[in-house]
C-alpha cells in the first residue's frame, strides 16, 4: 500500500461524512490517500526498496532453481537402460523403509 503524503492536506473532503469541519481538518493528517488505479500504483513514487544481502542470495538461488529442468533426462536414460538390460536391482529393504517413513509422516 502506498500513501502519498503530499496529497493528504489537499484531498477533497469525504462525501457523506458525519464529521464536522473542525474534526475533518484535525483528522486530515491521519487520513489515507485515495485508492489509486493500477496505472498510478505502478508509477514511481520516488521511494526505493533495498533488499538485504540474504534476500538477494535467496532470489539468485530461486532463479537458478527455476532454470533447472524438472526431470534429469540423463538419469532417466540411465535407469531405462539399466531396466532394459536387467542390471537394475531393486533394494526391497530401502523401498519398504521409505514407504514406512512416508506413512509415519502422515
Automatic annotation (TrEMBL):
Please tell me whether the keyword Cytoplasm is annotated for this protein: no
Q: Where is the composition biased (Polar residues)?
A: 15-31, 39-62
Q: Which residues form the Anti-sigma-28 factor FlgM C-terminal domain?
A: 48-101
Q: What is the lineage of its organism?
A: Bacteria, Pseudomonadati, Pseudomonadota, Gammaproteobacteria, Pseudomonadales
Q: Does the keyword Protease apply?
A: no
What organism does the record attribute this protein to?
Pseudomonas kulmbachensis
**Alphabetical list of NCBIfam families matching this protein:** FlgM_jcvi (TIGR03824)
Query: What domain of life is recorded for the organism?
Result: Bacteria
Q: Which Pfam families match?
A: FlgM (PF04316)
Which keywords are on file for this protein? Answer: Bacterial flagellum biogenesis, Cell projection, Cilium, Flagellum, Repressor, Transcription, Transcription regulation
Q: Which InterPro entries match?
A: Anti-sigma-28_factor_FlgM_sf, FlgM, FlgM_C
The UniProt family comment states: Belongs to the FlgM family.
Q: What protein name is recorded for this chain?
A: Negative regulator of flagellin synthesis
